[in-house]
Amino acid sequence: TWKWVVGPMFLYLCERLVRFWRSQQKVVITKVVIHPFKTIELQMMKKGFKMEVGQYIFVKCPAVSKLEWHPFTLTSAPEEDYFSIHVRIVGDWTEGLFNACGCDKQEFQEAWKLPKIAVDGPFGTASEDVFSYETVMLVGAGIGVTPFASVLKSVWYKYCHDATNLKLKKACIYFYWLCRDTHAFEWFADLLQSLEAQMQERNNAEFLSYNIYLTGWDETQATHFAVHHEEEKDVITGLKQKTLYGRPNWENEFKTIAEKHPGSRIGVFLCGPEALADTLNKQSISNSEADPRGVHFIFNKENF
Description:
One of its GO terms (biological process) is defense response. This is NADPH oxidase 2. Its main location: membrane. It catalyses: NADPH + 2 O2 = 2 superoxide + NADP(+) + H(+). By secondary structure, the protein is α/β, with parallel strands linked by helices. The chain has two domains: about 25-125, Elongation Factor Tu (Ef-tu), domain 3, CATH 2.40.30; about 130-300, Rossmann fold. The chain is about 30% helix and about 25% strand. It is built from seven helices and twelve strands. The protein starts with a helix and ends with a strand.
């Protein structure tokens, strides 16, 4: 038995040593941004840190807890000179991090007063394969939109600076974001507004097709939205693309995309709950053709 146990245990110990060594490397917080709805963005730098889109890291803040590590998806793009995470304040640990970064104070926080941070990672996810397809569907539910912040920024950077090596062309990104309430829109809408402005500057407003769905709303909200529907920008997100209400008709969405891109391999990427994963997986199978030269939907998921 020991022959079968020693090998895996040796590899496990090596992996733990490597992770311990990486977590001891110095991390510098360069910027703390407070977003609406109690969400903070930490921009950090670490020597030798290299990432890909959609990856995540483990974060420890000794000032809050000396033992707790928490996973966070990277929201920066590999092309940027820093890496960032968005932290929503929903528990004791995140509340402690919020206070340790001085976000509860009105005055400007000096950089040397910011807490020490330990980072382990990055670690890979299914979203890394997004550049393997000419056409992709990105589906984020609630806070599951965070991996696609990195993806969308990286795609735009690549398109602007190295379009010849980019498979994703000709408005082949279909982005869906599903949220229960309007508060969750606020921090991510800033990114979409920035992308929207840049696409218009380059006369390529059709590069990204995005659909935002508000799944939980009441009659008062509906009346208010209906009154302002004719305005140039959406009253919730400030985007030119209007917010839709209810849930997407996935069967229609898949059939429409299949008709637009015959004979293509289409990557479907989800970060969301298991129930939505089952739905998209079934649609990916039922809308893929048996003919190898036909359209095929390849489903990739990460659940939370």
